Every structure is written in C-alpha cells, then in structure tokens.
C-alpha cells in the first residue's frame, strides 16, 4: 500500500545500485527478451502478409498467449507476489514454469519489483510509474513510455531480503528462479515442436517458433506492460488509493484482469481483480473455478462490507476535494 510520502531512508533500504557487471548482465538479458521477440514479430508479419502460415500457427499463438498470461497473472502476480491463494507443489510448478515462459524476468526479480511497485506506488521509488517525469504533455508522454519498457534497464534493483525474504527462504521457488532461462527457451521451442508434430514440415517448426514463441512473447508483454504504464494514467478510479492506479477495461481484457489496477491497489491481497463478477477478470474467474475443483484453496477476497467502506471513503475524499476546489 502507498503512503503519503516515501521517506528517503526507506528508499535507501529498499533499493540496491548495481555494479557495472551486474548492470550489463541485467541490460543484456532485458534487451534480449525484448529485441528477439520484436524480430520474431516482424517475421510473423511477413509470414502473414505472404500467406506462409497455417491455422496451426494461429492456434499456437492463441494457446501460448493463454499459457503466458495465465502464468504471469495467476502464478507470478496473484500467487507469488500477493499470496492471494494457496496450492500444492504440482500446480505451483505449472504456474512458475508457465510464468517464466513469459520472459518477464526470473522469479525473484519479478516478485521484488512488483512488491516495490505496491510499496511506493506512483511515488519516488516506484520502479515503473508514468507519473514521476513532469506535468507537461511531453513529459507525461515520456513517463508513459518509460513506465512501459525502458524502466527495465534502470541501474538499480529491489533488495531481495527486504521485499521477498519468504521467497528467498523457499528452496522450491528458488529452483524456478535459477532455471529461468531453461523455461524461456522451452516456451519458444515447444510451439515449434507442436507445429512440426501437426504439420510435418520444417517450415511449420519455424512458423511455430515465430508465432507461438517469439511473436507471442512480444505481443503478450506489450499488453502486460500496459498495466504499469496505461493503467497508472488512464481509466476509472472507484477507490481512493492515494496513487494514480486506474481501471482500464480494454487492457483488463487483454491481460486477464490485470488492467483493473485501481481495484487491485485497493485490495492487493485479493485473488480477484474484479470487485464485481461483471468486470473483465479472466484470471479471477479461472481461479474461482480452480478453487471449486480443489486445485487451489484459501482464496482471499475482501468482504462486501470492506468494499463498501472503501467506496464510501473514495466518495468522501472526492467530496472533500470538490469542496476545497470551490473555497
Ligand atoms: Zn499498479
Ligand atoms: Zn500487484
């Protein structure tokens, strides 16, 4: 949760400046997972334009987009970063592996970055706020762009021992952290193998890798990164979170519910990002089903009274703001 002002002592305690070698490694890894998928997306556009693809490629893209988004939103975000529900080691393995296939960084980097985002939301120390770069139109555009992608190249990291001592102590979770590159590469090769198994041509292996692997990583991550950029700038704000988090339905549809950022910052421990079942939250709907099937349990969510209380607080804050404006 955010506080009115982030004390600089808390910031110094939370962030580590990287030495030159670690910074180079971080930038190399971030750029690789951005540039290779971009090249793959250009290749996919070429194959689409020239008709060099089959229905299998389209299905592979859709299926792997689902796997990718499920892993990141259910696994890394709601399970790992927020502990919104519990599960056994087998379903945990499925979540950690599919999340790693999203190529958004290894377990520890993802969870510590995300918890820091909640701790300093839209204040100094937030790793990807679009609102810290000035108030002119040009500065706001720059902020949106920075919060979308370049923030991943910053020369600082979140301190593991401060933000995720629980994960650091968990040998099973640290295994998925250490083996991250294996899962990223598997997520690129797997659709190529399936494409080959279905179509039996070398070209189908290549287009499987391009559509289900590289282009999927690029396009799914463009949607995911809009959660940090667009959803802290544009959208509805039913709750007063003392930050700029907003509910943006188009982004929520593309990201299985993550675009409901205002709801999420109001109730970060909830497994559901929709406070009503009508808001687009595919991962929340899926988790409710998985809970009924017994695959996950102890699903946390706010009570109706807690939601109502937060709504009333937001209305009171808005009324106080408008009174101030007319004074
Ligand atoms: Zn946020
Ligand atoms: Zn979160």
UniProtKB/TrEMBL annotation:
<keyword id="KW-0472">Membrane</keyword>
<keyword id="KW-1133">Transmembrane helix</keyword>
<keyword id="KW-0560">Oxidoreductase</keyword>
<feature type="transmembrane region" description="Helical">
    <location>
        <begin position="93"/>
        <end position="111"/>
    </location>
</feature>
<dbReference type="GO" id="GO:0004768">
    <property type="term" value="F:stearoyl-CoA 9-desaturase activity"/>
</dbReference>
<dbReference type="InterPro" id="IPR005804">
    <property type="entry name" value="FA_desaturase_dom"/>
</dbReference>
<feature type="transmembrane region" description="Helical">
    <location>
        <begin position="202"/>
        <end position="219"/>
    </location>
</feature>
<comment type="similarity">
    <text>Belongs to the fatty acid desaturase type 2 family.</text>
</comment>
<dbReference type="Pfam" id="PF00487">
    <property type="entry name" value="FA_desaturase"/>
</dbReference>
<protein>
    <submittedName>
        <fullName>Stearoyl-CoA desaturase (Delta-9 desaturase)</fullName>
        <ecNumber>1.14.19.1</ecNumber>
    </submittedName>
</protein>
<feature type="region of interest" description="Disordered">
    <location>
        <begin position="308"/>
        <end position="327"/>
    </location>
</feature>
<keyword id="KW-0443">Lipid metabolism</keyword>
<feature type="transmembrane region" description="Helical">
    <location>
        <begin position="58"/>
        <end position="81"/>
    </location>
</feature>
<feature type="domain" description="Fatty acid desaturase">
    <location>
        <begin position="59"/>
        <end position="269"/>
    </location>
</feature>
<keyword id="KW-0408">Iron</keyword>
<keyword id="KW-0276">Fatty acid metabolism</keyword>
<keyword id="KW-0812">Transmembrane</keyword>
<feature type="transmembrane region" description="Helical">
    <location>
        <begin position="179"/>
        <end position="196"/>
    </location>
</feature>
<dbReference type="InterPro" id="IPR015876">
    <property type="entry name" value="Acyl-CoA_DS"/>
</dbReference>
<feature type="transmembrane region" description="Helical">
    <location>
        <begin position="28"/>
        <end position="49"/>
    </location>
</feature>
């Amino acid at each position: 949760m955010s506080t009115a002002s982030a004390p600089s002592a808390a910031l110094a305690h939370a962030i580590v400046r990287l030495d030159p070698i670690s910074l180079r490694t971080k930038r190399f890894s971030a750029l690789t997972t951005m540039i290779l998928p971009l090249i793959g997306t250009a290749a996919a556009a070429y194959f689409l334009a020239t008709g060099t693809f089959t229905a299998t490629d389209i299905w592979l893209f859709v299926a792997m987009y689902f796997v990718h988004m499920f892993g990141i939103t259910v696994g890394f975000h709601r399970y790992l970063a927020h502990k919104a529900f519990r599960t056994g080691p087998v379903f945990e393995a499925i979540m950690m592996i599919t999340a790693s296939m999203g190529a958004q960084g290894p377990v520890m980097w993802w969870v510590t970055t995300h918890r820091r985002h909640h701790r300093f939301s839209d204040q100094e120390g937030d790793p990807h706020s679009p609102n810290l770069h000035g108030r002119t139109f040009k500065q706001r555009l720059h902020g949106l762009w920075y919060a979308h992608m370049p923030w991943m190249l910053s020369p600082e990291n979140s301190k593991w021992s401060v933000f995720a001592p629980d994960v650091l102590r968990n040998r099973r979770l640290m295994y998925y952290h250490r083996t991250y590159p294996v899962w990223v590469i598997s997520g690129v090769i797997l659709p190529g193998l399936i494409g080959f198994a279905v179509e039996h041509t070398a070209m189908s292996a290549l287009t499987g890798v391009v559509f289900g692997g590289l282009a999927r990583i690029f396009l799914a991550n463009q949607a995911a990164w809009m959660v940090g950029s667009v959803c802290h700038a544009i959208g509805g704000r039913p709750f007063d979170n003392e930050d700029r988090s907003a509910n943006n339905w188009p982004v929520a549809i593309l990201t299985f519910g993550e675009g409901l950022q205002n709801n999420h910052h109001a109730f970060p421990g909830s497994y559901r990002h929709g406070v009503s079942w009508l808001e687009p939250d595919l991962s929340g709907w899926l988790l409710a089903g998985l809970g009924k099937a017994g695959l996950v349990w102890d699903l946390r969510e706010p009570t109706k009274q807690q939601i109502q209380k937060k709504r009333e607080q937001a209305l009171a804050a808005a009324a106080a703001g408008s009174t101030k404006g007319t004074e």
